[in-house]
Write a structure and sequence with these properties.
Structural class: mainly alpha
Distance between the termini: 75 Å
Strand content: under 5%
Helix content: over 70%
Number of strands: 0
Radius of gyration: 25 Å
């Protein structure tokens, strides 16, 4: 196709823009990591509250989860950026202006929105833990923090990690919306700048596609390692060292499943 003819010189432009592109990638990575950490905190708080037996905890948590899952991330971002300051100015709240902390607003919007989605994964994972485990902690008179930390949450953690992996990858891609906020030059913002000396096919459909794919792949592999570690600690799978070892692994059942050889000198 004709637009491939100019790509050799476009790669030279990428070399000149490499510093700006790397800064944009680093900003995207920061948004993903900090937004993911904020989403994890929000999901744990809302998920534990939504699974509580107390209606005074469960009802407000359900309202918050459904509200923040139901609104657009872009609308939430603009609300934090432009609407929230109106309340602060009206009630003379002594807080810094959001326009001076646009990066923090982006992290907060990502954490709240995706944390509401992840809260359902936390609640569902807690309910998936066998009822006998809950009854055993009650029989042992364990306190709520103690049984959650030692018995219930380690099992739920291994169950919720696949869902959290999907949501974190979605958060990585959703972080591209934050470039609309002034002062946040993430990777998508730098791709828009790269489009001017090149074209949209090269900047977005090639450079952007490849880089976002690599970031998502690294993130997925990291979360899969966490999942393998969590399952191994519960005795449900091999350790990371065994998974990463180049030596072939023999399944425990292979030795017992193989037919026994007749003893030498035995009767035919």
């Amino acid at each position: 196709m004709d637009f491939f003819e100019d790509w050799p010189q476009y790669f030279q432009v990428v070399g000149n823009w490499s510093e700006r592109l790397l800064e944009g990638i680093w900003t995207t990575v920061q948004l993903t990591l900090l937004g993911g950490a904020a989403a994890l905190v929000v999901s744990l708080v809302l998920g534990l509250a939504a699974g509580s037996l107390s209606i005074w905890l469960r009802l407000p948590a359900r309202v918050l989860i459904e509200f923040f899952r139901g609104i657009s991330l872009l609308v939430l971002l603009f609300w934090l950026m432009f609407v929230l300051p109106l309340f602060w100015m009206h009630y003379d709240v002594p807080l810094p202006a959001p326009q001076e902390h646009t990066f923090a607003l982006g992290v907060a919007a990502l954490g709240i929105n995706y944390g509401a989605y992840a809260a359902e994964a936390v609640r569902a994972s807690l309910t998936t833990v066998p009822k006998a485990q809950w009854e055993a902690t009650t029989a042992l008179s364990m306190s709520w923090p103690h049984k959650m930390r030692r018995i219930i949450f380690p099992q739920a953690w291994a169950l919720m990690l696949p869902s959290l992996t999907n949501l974190w990858v979605h958060l990585l891609k959703g972080s591209a919306i934050v470039y609309l906020v002034p002062g946040v030059n993430d990777f998508t913002a730098e791709l828009n700048n790269l489009r001017r000396p090149t074209d949209i096919w090269f900047s977005h459909a090639f450079i952007g596609l490849v880089v976002y794919f690599i970031l998502a792949l690294v993130l997925t592999l990291f979360m899969q390692m966490l999942e393998a570690r969590a399952k191994h600690r519960l005795g449900r799978g091999p350790s990371l060292r065994e998974i990463l070892s180049p030596k072939p692994k023999t399944a425990p059942y292979e030795a017992s499943a193989s037919p026994k050889q007749p003893a030498a000198g035995g009767a035919s």
